[in-house]
């Protein structure tokens, strides 16, 4: 990977530890954790505009100390994030350990950007020809060896002279899923705003991390672990290598509430599945409509080069699906992926958005009656995903996040975030965020090759113009 840090100056690197009274904590990894053992880390950037009265001195004397102090308080509640994953050579599987007597804590890098255009970085429909400007805003890497790996690392970057600042997260996917990541971010923000009055958290931000509540009678934890060892040919905590993302262009596209309403009305008008005689009700949430529209544009970008089948992958929060159910505030990896398939020609058809919405609707509705996989199906789930991702006949598109994912509660005391950017490592994957102003807008993060991004932008924008109603209803 090229040196993405050339656009920022590193001011300091320090380690923030949990505030006093933290005790040693050791947690086993569950099968959800070992399933994600070598998945690339979560890389997320939140952007914040500074108040008009602020200066660089205000950032360093007021904002930065509060961020660090509140982070220390947050880590006392979210103690697992201050530790490391360990995998000694004589241990059958890794475990999570926080030790107050060691150097455990979270690495925090403070940086400055003097040539980064803050307003351009947070603008929607702005195509960035390189991903370097974004990767410069997250830590270079998590400390990872064969037998030990850090869980969380942060970078706080000031955009000079006083345009704004960003908080970049890099988190090991074995310990954190998207729900846990957002919950921690919101808890940190809450404590930062309350720093002079309270160090306690409300129930909805208080983490629960008792791993004993997740039952695993089939030994899926070791089955998934052995799948990874066989796949990578090594017993190591290092991540599975992914293609270099530096050459990918990045952009965030926006669907307004009105755009989503118009697309939903057209799907209802044109879908056979919404026929009154069939008594079928489509599930057309903002997530389904936004994902269907973006996926259809992506397939059309590929055109004749697209593979025969398209797989749409959606994330599943499994906290309520395990037996017994887990609290909504469970801190850990507790997600799964559900994949649905359709012929590429159906996506490229004039009514491609309708087909994609029907497919996603069926997938989401099937989850209402679906329990977690068991037996042989569960044991082969990871191998099946390996197979799908490498199938030359399948164009796999994955979506992360949800429009109502809770990421709009991240006000540290100087205003809500202006933008969230998930740095996706695979071209063509997308991430959906709800707008921070509660307007009902959905923001779609995307990375593609530059010429593909230009085509996607044209399809995306033109498809929202009055041409949409010209679609021909199905007979």
From TrEMBL:
<dbReference type="InterPro" id="IPR023213">
    <property type="entry name" value="CAT-like_dom_sf"/>
</dbReference>
<keyword id="KW-0012">Acyltransferase</keyword>
<protein>
    <submittedName>
        <fullName>Transferase</fullName>
    </submittedName>
</protein>
<dbReference type="GO" id="GO:0016747">
    <property type="term" value="F:acyltransferase activity, transferring groups other than amino-acyl groups"/>
</dbReference>
<keyword id="KW-0808">Transferase</keyword>
<dbReference type="InterPro" id="IPR051504">
    <property type="entry name" value="Plant_metabolite_acyltrans"/>
</dbReference>
<dbReference type="Pfam" id="PF02458">
    <property type="entry name" value="Transferase"/>
</dbReference>
């Amino acid at each position: 990977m090229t040196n993405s840090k050339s656009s920022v100056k590193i001011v300091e690197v320090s380690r923030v530890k949990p505030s006093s009274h933290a005790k040693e904590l050791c947690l086993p990894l569950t099968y959800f954790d070992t399933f994600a053992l070598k998945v690339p880390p979560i890389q997320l950037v939140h952007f914040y505009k500074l108040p008009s009265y602020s200066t660089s001195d205000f950032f360093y004397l007021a904002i930065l100390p509060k961020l660090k102090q509140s982070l220390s308080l947050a880590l006392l509640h979210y103690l697992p994030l201050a530790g490391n994953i360990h995998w000694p050579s004589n241990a059958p599987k890794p475990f999570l350990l926080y030790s107050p007597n060691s150097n455990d804590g979270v690495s925090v890098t403070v940086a400055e950007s003097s040539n980064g255009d803050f307003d351009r970085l947070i603008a929607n429909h702005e195509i960035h020809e390189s991903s370097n400007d974004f990767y410069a805003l997250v830590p270079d890497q998590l400390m990872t060896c064969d037998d030990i790996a850090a869980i969380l690392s942060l970078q706080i970057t000031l955009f000079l002279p006083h345009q704004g600042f960003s908080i970049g997260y890099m988190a090991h996917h074995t310990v954190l899923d998207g729900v846990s990541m957002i919950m921690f971010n919101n808890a940190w923000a809450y404590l930062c705003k309350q720093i002079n009055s309270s160090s306690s958290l409300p129930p909805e931000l208080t983490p629960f991390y008792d791993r004993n509540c997740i039952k695993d009678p089939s030994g899926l934890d070791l089955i998934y672990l052995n799948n990874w060892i066989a796949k990578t040919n090594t017993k190591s905590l290092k991540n599975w290598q992914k293609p270099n993302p530096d050459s990918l262009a990045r952009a965030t596209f926006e669907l307004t509430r009105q755009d989503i309403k118009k697309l939903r009305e057209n799907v209802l008008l044109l879908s056979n599945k919404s026929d009154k005689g069939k008594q079928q009700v489509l599930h057309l949430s903002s997530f389904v409509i936004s994902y269907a529209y973006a996926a259809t544009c992506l397939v059309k970008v590929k055109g004749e080069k697209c593979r025969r089948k398209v797989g749409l992958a959606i994330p599943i929060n499994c906290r309520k699906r395990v037996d017994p159910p887990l609290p909504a505030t469970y801190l850990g990896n507790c997600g799964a992926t559900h994949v649905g398939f359709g012929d590429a020609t159906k996506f490229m058809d004039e009514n491609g958005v309708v087909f994609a919405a029907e497919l996603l609707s069926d997938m989401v509705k099937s989850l209402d009656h679906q329990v977690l996989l068991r037996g042989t199906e569960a044991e082969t789930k990871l191998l099946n995903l390996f197979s799908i991702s490498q199938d030359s006949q399948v164009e796999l598109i994955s979506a992360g996040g949800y429009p109502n994912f809770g990421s709009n509660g991240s006000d540290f005391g100087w205003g809500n975030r202006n933008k969230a950017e998930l740095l996706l490592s695979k071209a063509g994957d997308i991430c959906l965020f709800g707008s921070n102003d509660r307007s009902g807008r959905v923001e779609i993060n995307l990375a593609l090759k530059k010429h593909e991004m230009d085509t996607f932008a044209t399809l995306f924008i033109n498809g929202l113009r009055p041409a949409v109603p010209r679609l021909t209803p199905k007979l």
